[in-house]
Amino acid sequence: MRILAVADTVSKYLYDYYTPGKLSGFDLILACGDLSRDYLEFLVDASQCPVLYVRGNHDDSLEDDPPGGCICIEDTLYNYRGIRIVGLGGSNRYREGGNMYTEKQMERRIKKLRMKIWKNGGFDILLTHSPARHLNDFDSISHRGFECFNELLEKYRPKYFVHGHIHKNYGRNIPQLTEHHGTTVINACDYCIFEYDDGGNARQKSG
């Protein structure tokens, strides 16, 4: 299955330099937040495949006016063609506003999903906006990852952890593809293309 992951910035390659058919070869698009409604709607229209998304810390408007044709998977486990995908958007709370959570609040969100995860025998992809603590994150509260994401990864060992929030221009040598205890971690900022197969192998092309 060919998957496109996107986050945080409108990709010039996908949008500004779009040509007919460029997005027709994807089976699924995963959007990790902080993307405009117009861009998400463009992706679903141009690709003609499902666009699953979670909200970023700048996506308050999407809660009341969601992008047409896209599927929000916040706080749920979504099964797409046998792939079990858990969605948890938002960032660490660093100011007042929506889609920002303390560590305790994110822990409570995960706790509410435990039964659904158990009934499904685990999950294959964790889709979030923020990274996990000490996995592609920073020490500043605004870009600090969630420790409870680490617990999820260690307990269920999904094939992929796909997140955004950490832009490539935030520092030198920010990785887009890493491994953590058997899970492939993808920073989807801009875009990243990967192949999902039964062996959990990632063949990456990124922006």
Structure overview:
This protein is of the alpha/beta class and 207 residues long. The chain has five helices and 14 strands. The strands form three sheets. A six-stranded mixed sheet has the order 4-3-2-1-13-14, with helices on one face. Strands 5-6-9-10-12-11 form a six-stranded mixed sheet. Strand 9, helix 5 (147-156) and strand 10 form a beta-alpha-beta unit.
Fold blueprint:
Blueprint: E1 2-7, H1 12-16, E2 28-31, H2 37-47, E3 51-53, H3 60-64, E4 71-72, E5 76-80, E6 83-88, E7 91-92, E8 100-101, H4 103-119, E9 125-128, H5 147-156, E10 160-163, E11 177-180, E12 183-187, E13 190-195, E14 205-206
Parallel strand pairs: 1-2, 2-3, 3-4, 6-9, 7-8, 9-10, 10-12
Antiparallel strand pairs: 1-13, 5-6, 11-12, 13-14
Spatial order of the strands forming the largest sheet: 4-3-2-1-13-14
Number of domains: 1
CATH architecture label: 4-Layer Sandwich
Question: Which range best describes the helical content: under 10%, 10-25%, 25-40%, 40-55%, 55-70% or over 70%?
Answer: 10-25%
Distance between the termini: 19 Å
What is the CATH topology?
Purple Acid Phosphatase, chain A, domain 2
Biggest β-sheet strands, sense, barrel: 6 strands, mixed
Strand portion, in percent? 25-35%
Mean pLDDT, all residues: 93
Low-confidence stretches: none
Rg over alpha carbons: 16 Å
Q: Pairing-aware structural class of the strands and helices?
A: alpha/beta
Enumerate how many helices there are, as a single number: 5
CATH superfamily: Metallo-dependent phosphatases
Q: How does the overall form come out from the CA principal axes? A: globular
Tell me how many strands there are. Answer: 14
Element pattern in H and E: EHEHEHEEEEEHEHEEEEE
> What's the level 1 CATH class?
Alpha Beta
